[in-house]
């Protein structure tokens, strides 16, 4: 329904706006322009993630460890933001987590398969930021990257930064 | 809940991004910068409104007249996008409509009352675009403006452009 796609539509508009803005006046974007665009989108996501997790954990008991936090992100948080649970969570028990979503909400508007795979990164920067922002508010510094091998399936890699 | 505020948070980020971008390098924004920002946000809203109404009216019977369309916007459309119905719809029966929402979703994150009234317009440009985009897809060209006298109450004025 429309209320579900509102976020997706708005997200599409932002991605397109941020990329256009970097490209303006130039023919092709170089890798620096792309990096700036990704960073802008990631930053927006970070702040949105912080806001969301604050709301979501307001009435939650505190978490017992890092894995407990990651499970919360994969279930409750993912459901609220991306409308389904993560399909698979793997970890090396040393601070690296791989979250696999086989039908990632922000990629379902795009054509499935491998045809537009080169376009995928720009639709994932915001979401990486959302996850990083949420973890940051729960006391975990992290690096979050995303990887797509066939749309709309997506893997997020979260590496917790130890002090 | 978080899924309800996701759109609001993202909207806040966009407004802040678009305004910052116009302001960059300058101390104060002049009226031209503000006009550009409003126009960018309105354009984003327009495209989102077009997409949403397409989804929403896919299975609807066609509308019998202009007033019928406006009623649909005030009830079904408003509920999906702004999570409540318009409180009051008035018309002069000559193509001008005033939609009053006493608790407008995108203003509830801001402080109530009259204190930040000068900040209100930037949070309404996107929504004006959404309404204009929806009407445009239903075959009505319009000019949509918004007016706030005390937050979070808001009046949208829609003037249908006759050919």
TrEMBL record, chains A, B:
TM regions (residue ranges): none
InterPro entries: NO_sig/Golgi_transp_ligand-bd (IPR024096), TRAPP_component (IPR007194), TRAPPC6/Trs33 (IPR037992)
Compartments, as annotated in UniProt: Endoplasmic reticulum; Golgi apparatus, cis-Golgi network
UniProt-listed PANTHER family: TRAFFICKING PROTEIN PARTICLE COMPLEX 6B-LIKE, TRAFFICKING PROTEIN PARTICLE COMPLEX SUBUNIT 6B
Domain of life the protein comes from: Eukaryota
Protein name: Trafficking protein particle complex subunit 6B
GO cellular component, as recorded: cis-Golgi network; endoplasmic reticulum; trans-Golgi network; TRAPP complex
Coiled coil: none
UniProt key word Endoplasmic reticulum: yes
Keywords in alphabetical order: Endoplasmic reticulum, Golgi apparatus, Neurogenesis
Chief localization: endoplasmic reticulum
Family indicated by similarity: Belongs to the TRAPP small subunits family. BET3 subfamily.
A GO BP entry: nervous system development
Function statement: Component of a transport protein particle (TRAPP) complex that may function in specific stages of inter-organelle traffic. Specifically involved in the early development of neural circuitry, likely by controlling the frequency and amplitude of intracellular calcium transients implicated in the regulation of neuron differentiation and survival.
